[in-house]
Every structure is written in C-alpha cells, then in structure tokens.
Amino acid sequence: MDNNEVLILRLLLGVKIFAGFAPQDGKDLLMYAVRLDIVPGIRVVSEGDQGREFYIVLSGDFSVVKTLPSGKEKIIAKLHPGDSFGEMSFLDGSPRAASVVADSPGLLLKFERSSLLKIPEPAAKIYFNLAKLLASRIRDTNSLISLALEGRERKTVQGVPAEALMTHRNMRRTRA
C-alpha cells in the first residue's frame, strides 16, 4: 500500500458508514471503490436520475441542491470531507432525491451496490450503518417539520444540526 492509499484508508475508516470496520475490511472496501477526481461546478449526481451507488467525500466541498416546484434550485445542505451522499438510491434503487454539485476541486470514493454485494460481511455492516445514518437524518427532518408546523424560530434545537436550522430559517425568510 502506498502513502496515498494509507491516507485514503484512514479517512475512509473515520466515516460513519464504516464505523466498526477493521483495517482489513477497509482494505477490502478500497478494492471495490472507484476513485473520482472532481473539478468545481461538476454535477456529480442529478435529481431524478437512477442510481445504485453512494459516495464518500474525501476532499473538497459540495452542495446538495433540490429543485423546488417553481423550478428554482435551492441548496439544502453542504457536504465536506467525511460526509456521504447517494445512500437512498443505493438502498432502494429509486431516482435521486437531489443533485450534488462540486463547489471546489474534490476527491470522492464511489461504492456501487453490485460490487459491494461481492463482499457480504462488510456489505452487511454497511447496510446496518446506513440504517443508523438515515434514521438520524429522518429525526433531524422531523424536528425541522415540527418547527415549520409551529411556525416558530429557535436559536438552537436539540438534535437538529445548526446548518439544518439555518436552511429552515432561510426558507421562512424567502416565503415572507
């Protein structure tokens, strides 16, 4: 393993989706990962497209963009090293719920469903960790929905990321 692969492995094992993985599991995963060097402005995934892969951000910054009913696009989240995206389509094969656009040069690892199924034990761990990650995101979304339904603003809400609250506040301002 060269120094670059060691660094990627260290970053990979620090990602929530790979919690509980041994270094050997990480090495096995890297064999099935596709490394993508990304230039700014590229749309990595597009809302509505089919997908059976998820991505890990190793470097760079990315925006998650949702198309509103009016046709306008709204940034709903920012992604940074250690974040992941594309998990829902990876799990259920449904079309992408949002687009992801590179804000800066970056490095991604892409994991395809068909490749991961070739390594059943690590794949089972990934599915379990994805379930935990998505449950956490649903809880955050439920908190935002509660805020929107109450029509209240709070500076901090337990369990809701500050970035999500900022998105909620920005959405309220644009409607006013």
In short:
By secondary structure, the chain is α+β, with helices and mostly antiparallel strands. The chain contains six helices and eight strands. The model is unreliable at 168-176 (pLDDT under 50).
Q: Could you say what the CATH architecture is?
A: Sandwich
The CATH class: Mainly Beta
Count of DSSP strands: 8
Distance between the termini: 56 Å
Global outline: globular
The proportion of residues forming helix, as a percent range, comes to 40-55%
Q: What number of domains?
A: 1
Average of pLDDT: 82
Task: Count the DSSP helices.
Answer: 6
Q: What's the order of the H and E elements?
A: HHEEEEEEHEEHHH
Q: Major β-sheet, in short?
A: 4 strands, antiparallel
CATH topology heading:
Jelly Rolls
User: Order of strands across the widest beta sheet?
Assistant: 1-8-3-6
User: What's the Cα radius of gyration?
Assistant: 17 Å
Low-confidence region ranges: 168-176
β-sheet strand percentage = 15-25%
Classification by helices and strands: alpha+beta
CATH superfamily descriptor: Jelly Rolls
Record keyword descriptors for this entry:
globular; alpha+beta; Jelly Rolls; four-stranded antiparallel sheet
Describe the 3D structure.
By secondary structure, this protein is an alpha+beta fold. It has a single domain, classed as Jelly Rolls (Sandwich), CATH 2.60.120.10. The chain contains six helices and eight strands. The chain has helices at residues 3-13, 23-32, 87-92, 113-116, 120-150, 162-175, and strands at residues 33-38, 43-45, 53-59, 62-67, 73-79, 84-85, 99-102, 106-112. The strands form two sheets. The protein has a four-stranded antiparallel β-sheet with strand order 1-8-3-6. Strands 2-7-4-5 form a four-stranded antiparallel β-sheet. Helix 5 (120-150) crosses helix 6. The longest helix is centred in the last third of the chain and has 31 residues, at 120-150. The chain is globular.
